[in-house]
Amino acid sequence: MSGKLTFGYLFDFRNPPQFRRKWDDLYAEILDLVAWTEDAGFAGAWVPEHHLSEDGYIPSPLVALTAMAARTSRIKLGSAIALAPLYNPVRFATDVAVLDIIARGRLEIGLAIGYRKRETAAFGVDFTRRGRMFDEWLEIVTRLWAGECLDYDGQWYQFQGAQLLPPAPRGRIPLYIGGFAPKAVERVARYGDGYVGSAETFDGYAARLAEQGRDPTSAKLRVTGLMTVVATDRQAAIEELSPHFHHVNNSYADYFNEDKAMGQDSFTPMGLDAFKASGTMEILTPDEAIAKFKAMQAAMPLDHYMMMMPPGLPAERFQHYAQTFAREVMPAFR
């Protein structure tokens, strides 16, 4: 498979207690770094969503993306991912249409249903029904983006006369849907412009597209490599980055273990020394990274690879690693 592959970073705005700074200073610095990644040649900047996290994991991705849109002019921006059942669909469609106007058509939205009962409970959403709600939600949002004046009488949502004024400028915001269950893959094939998440899910996505008579090679796949870093000195990078990615690993492990709703153990809690030795971080040399991404391109329609800024890492050290990636890896994919 072929096609252009681009790269970007996910910014979760976390401020862990062990690295704690003033919140406004941290947010200002991250916005500066988003603008810097655009200048460095990266193609995307993405914001996830979680709630009730001690480290302040960003709970308002659309607000953050609006600030990022005002600081940039070329880079693609989007959620990766927003937790759709926590939003009223008319409100979400409206806010995203306005955000896409501010961004001058650079917005791309990633969505999923979430996996933490604490989050849905805090928003008054029934955790067991969030998937069925999402199906109605997607229909409403995509019809509103398409310009319909909509009356709706569904099982979960009822309203009259909803319409986007001003309209969504492109008629549809590119929509990437995440998830691992078969039903999630069905939603991607039905509503999405592509899938965001794990490369291992691509085969199921491709099969669903083929069942619908669509060419799987025309699909778009956006992969998250949260702990992928390119470095010229692997051991030095492990020593420097481990405390930051260790926090990422253990916090996600805590999330997944709250309810075990994912049906898988993607992250295992461990001490720092065990984490260093575990190989969980993927520290690659530039040549290894180029080989990895070219192999992925050959196996699947990968169009964007998303890394992350680890929480608590000083800005200049993030720039060091990102600049190595931009200088040593990205030219192979232009």
Features:
334 residues, 11 helices, two-stranded antiparallel sheet, eight-stranded parallel beta barrel, TIM Barrel, alpha/beta
Q: What would you say this structure looks like, in words?
A:
The chain has 334 residues and is α/β, with parallel strands linked by helices. It has a single domain (6-241, 281-333), classed as TIM Barrel, CATH 3.20.20. Helices cover 44% and strands 17% of the residues. The chain has helices at residues 23-40, 61-71, 89-102, 117-122, 130-145, 182-191, 202-211, 234-259, 272-278, 286-299, 315-328; strands spanning 6-10, 44-47, 76-83, 107-112, 150-153, 158-162, 175-177, 194-197, 221-224, 228-230, 282-284, 302-308. The strands form three sheets. Strands 1-2-3-4-7-8-9-12 form an eight-stranded parallel beta barrel, surrounded by five helices. A two-stranded antiparallel ribbon has the order 5-6. Helix 1 packs parallel to helix 11 (315-328). It is globular and about 60 Å long. 41% of the residues are buried.
CATH architecture: Alpha-Beta Barrel
CATH top level is Alpha Beta
How is the biggest beta sheet arranged?
8 strands, parallel, barrel
Task: Give the structural class.
Answer: alpha/beta
Shape, principal axes of CA atoms: globular
Strand coverage percent = 15-25%
Query: What is the overall pLDDT average?
Result: 93
- The low-pLDDT segments are none
